[in-house]
Amino acid sequence: MKVVNESFNKIKSIFNIIQGKIAFYPSIIALAGVLLAIIITTLETTSVSNFLQENFTSLSIKSGDTALTMISVCIGGLISIMVFSFSVVMLLLSQASSNFSPRILPGLLSDKKNQYILGYYLGAIIYLMFILFSIRPEASENSIPSLSILIGVFITIFCLGSFIYFIHNMSQSIQIGNILEKIFNQSKKRLKVLVEKQYDEEGSLKVNKNWNTYKINRCGYFQNFSQKNILKICEENDTKIKILIPKGFFVLSNDDFLMSDKEIDEKILHKILNNFNFSKTELISDNYVLAFKQITEIAVKAMSPGINDPGTAINAIDYLTELLSLRMLKNDTDIHKFNDETLLEVKTLNFKKLIEDIVTSLKTYCMQDPILAIKIKNMINYLLEQKAYKEEYYSVLKNQINLLEKELS
Protein backbone atom coordinates (compact mmCIF):
# COMPACT_ATOMS: atom_id res chain seq x y z
CA MET A 1 0.00 0.00 0.00
CA LYS A 2 2.88 2.34 0.80
CA VAL A 3 4.50 1.75 -2.59
CA VAL A 4 1.17 2.39 -4.32
CA ASN A 5 0.72 5.73 -2.51
CA GLU A 6 4.25 6.84 -3.36
CA SER A 7 3.77 5.89 -7.01
CA PHE A 8 0.42 7.70 -7.12
CA ASN A 9 1.90 10.90 -5.67
CA LYS A 10 4.80 10.71 -8.12
CA ILE A 11 2.47 10.19 -11.09
CA LYS A 12 0.24 13.04 -9.91
CA SER A 13 3.23 15.35 -9.65
CA ILE A 14 4.46 14.42 -13.14
CA PHE A 15 0.95 14.90 -14.52
CA ASN A 16 0.85 18.46 -13.15
CA ILE A 17 3.96 19.21 -15.21
CA ILE A 18 3.03 17.60 -18.53
CA GLN A 19 -0.53 18.97 -18.58
CA GLY A 20 0.96 22.42 -19.10
CA LYS A 21 2.39 21.31 -22.47
CA ILE A 22 0.45 22.61 -25.47
CA ALA A 23 0.26 19.15 -27.08
CA PHE A 24 -1.09 17.29 -24.02
CA TYR A 25 -4.86 17.74 -24.29
CA PRO A 26 -4.89 17.75 -28.13
CA SER A 27 -3.23 14.32 -28.02
CA ILE A 28 -5.84 13.00 -25.56
CA ILE A 29 -8.73 14.36 -27.64
CA ALA A 30 -7.18 12.95 -30.85
CA LEU A 31 -7.15 9.51 -29.22
CA ALA A 32 -10.81 10.04 -28.32
CA GLY A 33 -11.48 10.73 -32.02
CA VAL A 34 -9.98 7.34 -32.92
CA LEU A 35 -12.08 5.56 -30.30
CA LEU A 36 -15.24 7.35 -31.46
CA ALA A 37 -14.58 6.30 -35.06
CA ILE A 38 -14.16 2.67 -33.98
CA ILE A 39 -17.37 2.75 -31.91
CA ILE A 40 -19.48 4.41 -34.62
CA THR A 41 -18.08 2.10 -37.31
CA THR A 42 -19.06 -0.85 -35.15
CA LEU A 43 -22.59 0.55 -34.74
CA GLU A 44 -22.88 0.78 -38.53
CA THR A 45 -22.91 -3.02 -38.67
CA THR A 46 -26.21 -2.98 -36.76
CA SER A 47 -29.54 -1.66 -38.02
CA VAL A 48 -28.90 1.89 -36.79
CA SER A 49 -27.80 3.21 -40.20
CA ASN A 50 -30.74 1.53 -41.96
CA PHE A 51 -33.14 3.06 -39.43
CA LEU A 52 -31.68 6.51 -40.20
CA GLN A 53 -32.10 5.99 -43.96
CA GLU A 54 -35.68 4.78 -43.60
CA ASN A 55 -36.98 7.37 -41.12
CA PHE A 56 -34.80 10.44 -41.82
CA THR A 57 -34.47 10.43 -45.58
CA SER A 58 -33.35 14.06 -45.76
CA LEU A 59 -30.37 13.35 -43.49
CA SER A 60 -29.16 10.23 -45.28
CA ILE A 61 -26.79 10.13 -48.26
CA LYS A 62 -27.61 7.81 -51.16
CA SER A 63 -24.45 8.21 -53.27
CA GLY A 64 -20.94 7.04 -52.40
CA ASP A 65 -19.40 9.89 -54.41
CA THR A 66 -21.48 12.45 -52.52
CA ALA A 67 -20.41 10.94 -49.22
CA LEU A 68 -16.74 11.02 -50.20
CA THR A 69 -17.03 14.62 -51.38
CA MET A 70 -18.73 15.74 -48.18
CA ILE A 71 -16.20 14.05 -45.90
CA SER A 72 -13.28 15.36 -48.01
CA VAL A 73 -14.63 18.92 -47.82
CA CYS A 74 -14.98 18.63 -44.03
CA ILE A 75 -11.42 17.30 -43.64
CA GLY A 76 -9.95 19.97 -45.94
CA GLY A 77 -11.81 22.76 -44.15
CA LEU A 78 -10.76 21.55 -40.69
CA ILE A 79 -7.12 21.22 -41.74
CA SER A 80 -7.20 24.80 -43.05
CA ILE A 81 -8.75 26.06 -39.81
CA MET A 82 -6.24 24.12 -37.68
CA VAL A 83 -3.26 25.47 -39.63
CA PHE A 84 -4.60 29.01 -39.32
CA SER A 85 -5.22 28.56 -35.60
CA PHE A 86 -1.69 27.29 -34.96
CA SER A 87 -0.32 30.18 -37.01
CA VAL A 88 -2.30 32.66 -34.90
CA VAL A 89 -1.02 31.04 -31.70
CA MET A 90 2.62 31.22 -32.80
CA LEU A 91 2.26 34.83 -33.98
CA LEU A 92 0.64 36.00 -30.76
CA LEU A 93 3.18 34.14 -28.62
CA SER A 94 5.98 35.83 -30.57
CA GLN A 95 4.42 39.24 -30.00
CA ALA A 96 3.87 38.54 -26.30
CA SER A 97 7.50 37.48 -25.91
CA SER A 98 8.88 40.58 -27.62
CA ASN A 99 6.44 43.14 -26.16
CA PHE A 100 5.98 41.85 -22.61
CA SER A 101 8.26 39.09 -21.32
CA PRO A 102 9.39 35.61 -22.47
CA ARG A 103 8.55 34.34 -18.99
CA ILE A 104 4.80 34.62 -19.64
CA LEU A 105 4.90 32.08 -22.50
CA PRO A 106 4.51 28.93 -20.34
CA GLY A 107 1.38 30.46 -18.82
CA LEU A 108 -0.11 31.25 -22.23
CA LEU A 109 0.78 27.81 -23.59
CA SER A 110 -0.87 26.11 -20.62
CA ASP A 111 -4.24 27.76 -21.34
CA LYS A 112 -6.53 24.71 -21.40
CA LYS A 113 -9.24 26.41 -23.49
CA ASN A 114 -6.93 26.79 -26.48
CA GLN A 115 -5.58 23.27 -26.00
CA TYR A 116 -9.11 21.85 -26.00
CA ILE A 117 -10.02 23.68 -29.22
CA LEU A 118 -6.89 22.54 -31.04
CA GLY A 119 -7.69 19.05 -29.79
CA TYR A 120 -11.22 19.27 -31.21
CA TYR A 121 -9.77 20.04 -34.66
CA LEU A 122 -7.30 17.17 -34.48
CA GLY A 123 -9.84 14.69 -33.09
CA ALA A 124 -12.41 15.63 -35.76
CA ILE A 125 -9.89 15.26 -38.59
CA ILE A 126 -8.78 11.84 -37.39
CA TYR A 127 -12.40 10.72 -36.93
CA LEU A 128 -13.35 11.84 -40.47
CA MET A 129 -10.28 10.17 -41.97
CA PHE A 130 -11.23 6.84 -40.40
CA ILE A 131 -14.78 7.20 -41.72
CA LEU A 132 -13.39 8.06 -45.16
CA PHE A 133 -11.67 4.68 -45.29
CA SER A 134 -15.01 2.88 -44.95
CA ILE A 135 -16.69 4.61 -47.93
CA ARG A 136 -16.46 3.32 -51.52
CA PRO A 137 -17.51 5.41 -54.57
CA GLU A 138 -19.56 2.54 -55.96
CA ALA A 139 -21.23 1.78 -52.63
CA SER A 140 -24.98 1.18 -52.63
CA GLU A 141 -27.37 3.21 -50.50
CA ASN A 142 -27.59 0.49 -47.85
CA SER A 143 -23.80 0.19 -47.47
CA ILE A 144 -23.14 3.93 -46.97
CA PRO A 145 -22.35 4.71 -43.29
CA SER A 146 -25.01 7.42 -42.96
CA LEU A 147 -24.75 7.63 -39.16
CA SER A 148 -20.97 8.09 -39.25
CA ILE A 149 -21.24 10.81 -41.90
CA LEU A 150 -24.01 12.63 -40.03
CA ILE A 151 -21.99 12.63 -36.80
CA GLY A 152 -18.95 13.85 -38.75
CA VAL A 153 -20.97 16.79 -40.12
CA PHE A 154 -22.18 17.72 -36.63
CA ILE A 155 -18.61 17.51 -35.30
CA THR A 156 -17.43 19.78 -38.13
CA ILE A 157 -20.13 22.34 -37.29
CA PHE A 158 -19.07 22.17 -33.63
CA CYS A 159 -15.45 22.81 -34.66
CA LEU A 160 -16.52 25.85 -36.68
CA GLY A 161 -18.19 27.25 -33.58
CA SER A 162 -15.07 26.45 -31.56
CA PHE A 163 -12.98 28.33 -34.13
CA ILE A 164 -15.01 31.50 -33.54
CA TYR A 165 -14.56 31.13 -29.80
CA PHE A 166 -10.83 30.46 -30.32
CA ILE A 167 -10.36 33.77 -32.14
CA HIS A 168 -12.25 35.59 -29.39
CA ASN A 169 -10.30 33.87 -26.61
CA MET A 170 -6.90 34.54 -28.20
CA SER A 171 -7.74 38.20 -28.79
CA GLN A 172 -8.61 38.49 -25.10
CA SER A 173 -5.77 36.45 -23.64
CA ILE A 174 -3.06 38.43 -25.43
CA GLN A 175 -4.20 41.76 -23.98
CA ILE A 176 -1.72 42.93 -21.35
CA GLY A 177 -4.47 43.75 -18.85
CA ASN A 178 -5.79 40.19 -18.99
CA ILE A 179 -2.26 38.76 -18.82
CA LEU A 180 -1.49 40.77 -15.69
CA GLU A 181 -4.80 39.79 -14.11
CA LYS A 182 -4.22 36.10 -14.83
CA ILE A 183 -0.72 36.19 -13.35
CA PHE A 184 -2.01 38.10 -10.33
CA ASN A 185 -4.90 35.70 -9.67
CA GLN A 186 -2.70 32.59 -9.94
CA SER A 187 -0.09 34.00 -7.58
CA LYS A 188 -2.69 35.33 -5.14
CA LYS A 189 -4.35 31.92 -4.98
CA ARG A 190 -1.02 30.21 -4.34
CA LEU A 191 0.04 32.75 -1.69
CA LYS A 192 -3.25 32.44 0.18
CA VAL A 193 -2.81 28.68 0.41
CA LEU A 194 0.74 29.09 1.77
CA VAL A 195 -0.32 31.74 4.29
CA GLU A 196 -3.17 29.58 5.60
CA LYS A 197 -0.97 26.47 5.95
CA GLN A 198 2.20 28.10 7.28
CA TYR A 199 3.77 27.22 10.60
CA ASP A 200 5.47 29.59 13.03
CA GLU A 201 9.20 30.10 12.40
CA GLU A 202 9.96 28.83 15.88
CA GLY A 203 9.47 25.35 14.47
CA SER A 204 12.29 25.73 11.93
CA LEU A 205 15.13 23.23 11.92
CA LYS A 206 18.29 24.10 13.85
CA VAL A 207 21.15 23.27 11.49
CA ASN A 208 24.64 22.75 12.91
CA LYS A 209 28.02 21.52 11.69
CA ASN A 210 27.07 17.91 12.36
CA TRP A 211 24.49 17.92 9.57
CA ASN A 212 25.35 16.06 6.37
CA THR A 213 25.19 17.77 2.97
CA TYR A 214 24.19 15.93 -0.19
CA LYS A 215 24.52 16.92 -3.84
CA ILE A 216 22.23 16.27 -6.78
CA ASN A 217 23.22 14.99 -10.22
CA ARG A 218 20.41 16.69 -12.16
CA CYS A 219 19.87 20.20 -13.43
CA GLY A 220 16.78 22.27 -14.17
CA TYR A 221 14.25 24.44 -12.40
CA PHE A 222 13.27 23.00 -9.02
CA GLN A 223 9.57 22.81 -9.85
CA ASN A 224 7.88 20.78 -7.15
CA PHE A 225 8.21 17.84 -4.78
CA SER A 226 6.03 15.19 -3.19
CA GLN A 227 5.70 16.47 0.35
CA LYS A 228 3.84 13.43 1.72
CA ASN A 229 6.37 10.93 0.38
CA ILE A 230 9.38 12.82 1.74
CA LEU A 231 7.79 13.29 5.17
CA LYS A 232 7.08 9.54 5.31
CA ILE A 233 10.68 8.75 4.41
CA CYS A 234 11.91 11.13 7.11
CA GLU A 235 9.60 9.58 9.68
CA GLU A 236 10.55 6.02 8.76
CA ASN A 237 14.29 6.76 8.91
CA ASP A 238 14.08 9.07 11.93
CA THR A 239 15.78 11.95 10.16
CA LYS A 240 15.17 15.60 9.32
CA ILE A 241 15.85 17.25 5.98
CA LYS A 242 16.44 20.82 4.86
CA ILE A 243 16.29 21.71 1.14
CA LEU A 244 18.95 24.30 0.32
CA ILE A 245 17.61 25.50 -3.05
CA PRO A 246 14.36 27.54 -3.14
CA LYS A 247 11.53 26.34 -5.35
CA GLY A 248 11.61 27.89 -8.79
CA PHE A 249 15.37 28.38 -8.79
CA PHE A 250 17.65 26.70 -11.32
CA VAL A 251 19.61 23.80 -9.84
CA LEU A 252 23.04 23.06 -11.27
CA SER A 253 24.50 19.57 -11.46
CA ASN A 254 26.46 18.63 -8.33
CA ASP A 255 25.00 21.55 -6.38
CA ASP A 256 24.54 21.14 -2.63
CA PHE A 257 20.84 20.36 -2.62
CA LEU A 258 19.83 19.07 0.80
CA MET A 259 21.05 18.56 4.36
CA SER A 260 20.16 15.87 6.86
CA ASP A 261 20.71 15.64 10.60
CA LYS A 262 21.71 11.99 10.11
CA GLU A 263 23.80 10.23 7.52
CA ILE A 264 21.67 8.82 4.69
CA ASP A 265 22.75 5.83 2.64
CA GLU A 266 22.66 5.88 -1.16
CA LYS A 267 19.45 3.89 -1.39
CA ILE A 268 17.46 6.24 0.87
CA LEU A 269 19.01 9.32 -0.78
CA HIS A 270 18.00 8.06 -4.22
CA LYS A 271 14.50 7.42 -2.92
CA ILE A 272 14.28 10.97 -1.56
CA LEU A 273 15.59 12.64 -4.72
CA ASN A 274 13.11 10.72 -6.87
CA ASN A 275 10.36 12.76 -5.22
CA PHE A 276 11.66 16.05 -6.65
CA ASN A 277 10.56 17.30 -10.04
CA PHE A 278 12.74 19.45 -12.28
CA SER A 279 11.65 21.25 -15.40
CA LYS A 280 13.04 23.54 -18.08
CA THR A 281 10.11 25.93 -17.60
CA GLU A 282 8.56 27.76 -14.66
CA LEU A 283 4.91 27.75 -13.56
CA ILE A 284 3.25 30.21 -11.15
CA SER A 285 1.02 27.45 -9.78
CA ASP A 286 4.15 25.83 -8.32
CA ASN A 287 6.13 28.96 -7.46
CA TYR A 288 4.46 32.26 -6.59
CA VAL A 289 7.80 34.14 -6.78
CA LEU A 290 7.65 33.77 -10.56
CA ALA A 291 4.64 36.09 -10.62
CA PHE A 292 6.71 38.86 -9.06
CA LYS A 293 9.42 38.29 -11.67
CA GLN A 294 6.96 38.30 -14.56
CA ILE A 295 5.05 41.42 -13.48
CA THR A 296 8.30 43.28 -12.76
CA GLU A 297 9.69 42.34 -16.17
CA ILE A 298 6.47 43.49 -17.85
CA ALA A 299 6.79 46.88 -16.11
CA VAL A 300 10.46 47.16 -17.10
CA LYS A 301 9.77 46.10 -20.69
CA ALA A 302 6.94 48.61 -20.94
CA MET A 303 9.40 51.41 -20.16
CA SER A 304 11.96 50.35 -22.76
CA PRO A 305 12.60 52.97 -25.52
CA GLY A 306 11.05 50.73 -28.18
CA ILE A 307 7.72 50.37 -26.34
CA ASN A 308 7.46 53.35 -23.91
CA ASP A 309 4.13 52.43 -22.31
CA PRO A 310 3.93 54.03 -18.83
CA GLY A 311 0.28 52.96 -18.46
CA THR A 312 1.22 49.28 -18.50
CA ALA A 313 4.04 49.93 -16.02
CA ILE A 314 1.60 51.66 -13.65
CA ASN A 315 -0.84 48.73 -13.87
CA ALA A 316 2.00 46.29 -13.20
CA ILE A 317 3.09 48.23 -10.09
CA ASP A 318 -0.50 48.20 -8.81
CA TYR A 319 -0.60 44.39 -9.06
CA LEU A 320 2.83 44.13 -7.44
CA THR A 321 1.63 46.27 -4.54
CA GLU A 322 -1.32 43.99 -3.83
CA LEU A 323 0.77 40.82 -4.08
CA LEU A 324 3.49 42.21 -1.83
CA SER A 325 0.91 43.13 0.81
CA LEU A 326 -0.19 39.49 0.80
CA ARG A 327 3.42 38.26 0.86
CA MET A 328 3.97 40.30 4.03
CA LEU A 329 1.62 37.90 5.83
CA LYS A 330 3.90 34.95 5.07
CA ASN A 331 7.03 33.98 6.96
CA ASP A 332 10.41 33.45 5.31
CA THR A 333 10.54 29.74 6.15
CA ASP A 334 8.67 26.91 4.45
CA ILE A 335 8.11 24.31 7.17
CA HIS A 336 6.48 20.88 6.79
CA LYS A 337 5.52 18.80 9.82
CA PHE A 338 4.61 15.20 10.48
CA ASN A 339 2.73 14.48 13.72
CA ASP A 340 3.48 18.04 14.95
CA GLU A 341 7.23 17.56 14.47
CA THR A 342 9.20 19.50 11.87
CA LEU A 343 10.84 16.97 9.56
CA LEU A 344 11.22 18.99 6.36
CA GLU A 345 12.20 22.59 5.66
CA VAL A 346 12.55 24.19 2.24
CA LYS A 347 14.58 27.33 1.68
CA THR A 348 12.53 30.21 0.29
CA LEU A 349 13.25 33.62 -1.19
CA ASN A 350 13.03 35.90 1.85
CA PHE A 351 11.05 39.14 1.85
CA LYS A 352 14.14 41.35 1.96
CA LYS A 353 15.64 39.79 -1.17
CA LEU A 354 12.27 39.84 -2.93
CA ILE A 355 11.58 43.54 -2.32
CA GLU A 356 15.17 44.49 -3.17
CA ASP A 357 15.02 42.67 -6.52
CA ILE A 358 11.70 44.29 -7.43
CA VAL A 359 12.52 47.84 -6.38
CA THR A 360 16.04 47.73 -7.88
CA SER A 361 14.68 46.64 -11.26
CA LEU A 362 11.94 49.27 -11.20
CA LYS A 363 14.34 52.04 -10.14
CA THR A 364 16.79 51.16 -12.89
CA TYR A 365 14.30 51.50 -15.72
CA CYS A 366 11.38 53.56 -14.40
CA MET A 367 12.88 56.37 -12.32
CA GLN A 368 13.28 58.62 -15.38
CA ASP A 369 9.50 59.00 -15.43
CA PRO A 370 8.38 61.25 -12.51
CA ILE A 371 4.93 59.63 -12.36
CA LEU A 372 6.40 56.14 -12.05
CA ALA A 373 8.96 57.31 -9.50
CA ILE A 374 6.12 58.59 -7.31
CA LYS A 375 4.17 55.39 -7.97
CA ILE A 376 7.05 53.25 -6.67
CA LYS A 377 7.33 55.44 -3.58
CA ASN A 378 3.59 55.20 -2.96
CA MET A 379 3.81 51.42 -3.27
CA ILE A 380 6.32 51.18 -0.44
CA ASN A 381 4.40 53.69 1.71
CA TYR A 382 1.27 51.61 1.23
CA LEU A 383 3.10 48.44 2.29
CA LEU A 384 4.34 50.18 5.43
CA GLU A 385 0.70 50.60 6.49
CA GLN A 386 -0.17 46.93 5.99
CA LYS A 387 -0.09 44.10 8.47
CA ALA A 388 3.15 42.10 8.43
CA TYR A 389 4.17 38.69 9.74
CA LYS A 390 7.14 40.22 11.58
CA GLU A 391 8.54 43.69 12.31
CA GLU A 392 11.66 43.00 10.26
CA TYR A 393 9.62 43.53 7.09
CA TYR A 394 8.94 47.15 8.05
CA SER A 395 12.66 47.79 8.50
CA VAL A 396 13.30 46.47 5.00
CA LEU A 397 10.62 48.76 3.55
CA LYS A 398 11.87 51.82 5.47
CA ASN A 399 15.36 51.21 4.12
CA GLN A 400 13.98 51.11 0.58
CA ILE A 401 11.98 54.31 1.04
CA ASN A 402 15.10 56.08 2.35
CA LEU A 403 17.08 55.01 -0.72
CA LEU A 404 14.30 56.22 -2.99
CA GLU A 405 14.13 59.62 -1.33
CA LYS A 406 17.88 60.05 -1.79
CA GLU A 407 17.59 59.31 -5.50
CA LEU A 408 14.59 61.63 -5.91
CA SER A 409 16.23 64.50 -4.08
Automatic annotation (TrEMBL):
InterPro entries: DUF2254_membrane. It comes from the Bacteria. This is DUF2254 domain-containing protein. It comes from Patiriisocius hiemis. Keywords: Membrane, Transmembrane, Transmembrane helix. Pfam families: DUF2254 (PF10011). The chain crosses the membrane at residues 22-43, 67-93, 114-135, 147-167.
